[in-house]
Amino acid sequence: xxxxxxxxxxxxxxxxxxxxxxxxxxxxxxxxxxxxxxxxxxxxxxxxxxxxxxxxxxxxxxxxxxxxxxxxxxxxxxxxxxx
Length: 83
What we know:
The chain contains one helix and five strands. It is of the alpha+beta class. Strands 1-2-3-4-5 form a five-stranded antiparallel beta sheet, covered by helices on one side. A hairpin with a 4-residue loop joins strand 4 and strand 5. It starts with a strand and ends in an 8-residue tail after the last helix.
């Protein structure tokens, strides 16, 4: 699970066996998780995270979009169906 960032106690990563759309998982202790589409900057799934925190994580994704996309594309460069 490549870790691409850390923000406000959330670990930001994606799995080695991912699928489209391009997305990251924000995970924090206590079962908190938000999955965000990197290209559309939208929440795909959220568990135990407030709407206010989702907005903060969306803003973080917007600010880090180029970095997250670069990490995704670099990691999956040998899997053209994920680019």
